[in-house]
Specification:
single chain, 441 residues, alpha/beta, FAD/NAD(P)-binding domain, 2 domains, seven-stranded mixed beta sheet, five-stranded parallel beta sheet, 24 strands, 32% helix
């Protein structure tokens, strides 16, 4: 006679990003009452839709509308706001450092590794001190306030060298994140200058630095060249096949001998697997990602699953050409993987077969500011307004929840008639400054 379980199957999802949230959402819809419990562990109480971060930073979308509160969406799941620091599958336990600082263990029967990638940095002098990332909503808000505050300060100084430094903006990394961030922020700053007496677009110095010989490898080389041409027409200087040697004190030194000063240095030069995975007993590949089958089960570990940026899921659309091919880390794969992952977990719980993940890459679209974009879809190239519209349509379709889709659409509609918001709210970074002055006066 089979043993009767004393509790529902405990499913623990480590990570609340695309994969974590979508998998949990799928599980809460498909699981029967009492069949299993679902716990999601993440340092933030929300999921961030990262493709919209550049638009949030540039004032086209309200920042709160590109994040999805986990507790509101995952009503049948248990949300743990904390950082997973260790996974011991031998004991089926996850060690979590909670928001209040104390540490506890969360036990599981089924584990889902949904950890997201982190920024890949290089040992460049000065980078830790002056670099600004672009992976979180906090960074997007900070960048928006920072760029607009540089315009305010530049309009208030008569020193030409100080003004030049304030109006020099650098983006390091020519992937999608870097190009969209650069293009959106430059477009916002150009729009904002109409309200600044004494400043004109030619006073700004926007710079892109990319170590490879081309930008946006996800699209065709011709479209990459076209994008560079369009950026240069807007006065943006593009350094390709160029590396940064030093950033100390905001003094930018490139390996071709170029030197200049800047107070805004944005780092988007690649991602790497989450270092938490090194503190687990899960099998990892040479890039630190979890080794998986095409069904997203972790190799050799029944009951353990992984998907998203930090998983090495075979890309069945390319394995005939390259047997070692794995899915590239992007939202397109992460969202689709998570939906199948939820189905596979439920199928396993009910003794049914799983399905392999298969998705042929259809292409990519990128926004380059208001009414500007590029796209490479099904081998067809799109430019300008058409690509911009495709970019927005595609991403609002994949934006989680009807609530957030509606809010983003309303933001776009308002911006269409009233323009971008160009207010710097820098005080949020020093919320006690005015109160402290009042107490000392």
């Amino acid at each position: 006679m089979a043993a009767v379980k004393s509790h529902p199957t405990r499913i623990v999802i480590v990570g609340g990003g695309y994969v974590g949230m979508y998998t949990a959402l799928g599980l809460q819809k498909k699981l029967r009452s009492g069949e299993a419990s679902v716990t999601v562990i993440d340092p933030q109480p929300h999921m961030t839709y990262q493709p919209f971060l550049p638009e949030a930073a540039a004032g086209s979308i309200e920042p709160r509308h590109v994040v999805v509160p986990l507790r509101k969406v995952l009503k049948r799941c248990h949300i743990v706001t904390g950082r997973a620091t260790k996974v011991e599958h031998a004991r089926k336990a996850v060690t979590v450092e909670l928001a209040d600082g104390h540490v506890e263990e969360v036990e599981y029967d089924v584990l889902v590794s949904a950890l997201g990638a982190i920024s890949r940095t290089l040992p460049i002098p000065g980078l830790p001190e002056v670099g600004i990332g672009m992976k979180t909503i906090g960074e997007a808000i900070y960048l928006r306030n920072h760029v607009l505050s540089r315009l305010d300060q530049a309009a208030s100084t008569n020193d030409p060298e100080t003004r030049k430094r304030l109006l020099s903006f650098v983006v390091i990394g020519g992937g999608f994140a870097g190009i969209e961030t650069l293009a959106e922020l430059e477009d916002m700053a150009r729009y904002a200058l109409r309200y600044y007496e004494g400043l004109k677009p030619d006073d700004m110095h926007w710079v892109l630095v990319e170590a490879a010989g081309r930008i946006m490898p996800e699209v065709s080389a011709k479209l990459g060249v076209y994008t560079v041409e369009q950026l240069e027409k807007r006065g943006i200087t593009c350094y390709l096949d160029t590396r940064v040697k030093s950033l100390e004190g905001g003094h930018v030194v490139l390996d071709d001998g170029t030197e200049f000063d800047s107070e805004t240095i944005i780092w988007t030069a690649g991602m790497k697997a989450n270092p938490v995975l090194r503190n687990t007993d899960l099998p990892l590949d040479e890039r630190g990602r979890v080794r998986c089958t095409a069904a997203m089960q972790v190799q050799g570990l029944p009951g353990v699953w992984a998907a998203g940026d930090c998983s090495a899921v075979p890309d069945l659309s390319r394995t005939e050409e390259d047997p070692t091919a794995t899915c590239v880390p992007n939202a397109q794969h992460a969202i689709r993987q998570s939906k199948l992952l939820a189905k596979n977990i439920v199928a396993t719980l009910r003794g049914k077969p799983t399905k392999d993940y298969f998705h042929k890459y259809v292409g990519s679209v990128a926004g380059l500011g208001l009414y500007k974009g590029v796209g490479d879809v099904f081998g067809l190239r799109f430019k300008g307004v058409v690509a911009w519209f495709m970019h927005r349509s595609y991403h609002v379709m994949f934006m989680p929840t009807v609530n957030r889709k509606f809010r983003v659409f309303v933001d776009w509609t308002q911006a269409l008639f009233s323009g971008r918001e160009v207010v710097a709210l820098g005080q949020i970074h020093e919320p006690k400054a005015e109160f402290d002055r009042a107490t000392k006066s």
